[in-house]
Amino acid sequence: MTHAASTIIAHEHRALSAMLRSILLLLGDHRRRGTLPDFGALRAMLFYVDEFPEKLHHPKESLLLFPKLRGHSAPTDAVLDRLDRDHARGEHLVRGLEHALLGFEMMGETDQHEPRRANFETAMTLYVRFYLEHMHIEEAQVLPLAEAMLGAADWAELDDAFLANRDPLAGHDAVTAYQPLFTKIIAALPASGDIGSVLEALAGVAAPKFRA
Predict the structure, then answer these.
(1) For the chain, how many helices (H) and strands (E)?
(2) Is 210 a domain residue?
(3) With contact defined as beta carbons under 8 Å apart, do 68 and 154 qualify?
């Protein structure tokens, strides 16, 4: 039996994977065409990463799921320690990406244009690789262990917590306040050259791809 919390975590991973891949696709498409990306759309995408995965998804894993698995074995605790460190780094890394994007945008009409563009693209690529590996570890090691170890009371608590997330890119209707954000993001995606698989992932019908 797969519990609701496990399913939601996998769906939210799918949404984050799709969003991160979308950013790289957009950047690659504009670099090939020698054009500037839609900076507003990129800001909206990074805001999504900060607002949903960073503030809703990751804290519930670190505060609710991981403590229930600690003490199973030393290797398991080492994996959980690494994942907690990843979560702690996440918000800091997003702030760095937002600053690098601002530098790219603000310095686009100067001789700093190409270095700033390359700096953001490199930072974004490293961030995507970092989080795709992070999600792979969670799905390959943590969720199977949780399904094997945890009891009904544990799952009742986890299910209630994760059912409250309501991430629009993981299959829920957007809260009214967020609808303009997701409209802006979706409108930007067709500019990419490989948008089909991303849209499938955003719609929840494609398995997440944990590779940049």
Answers:
(1) 10, 0
(2) no
(3) yes
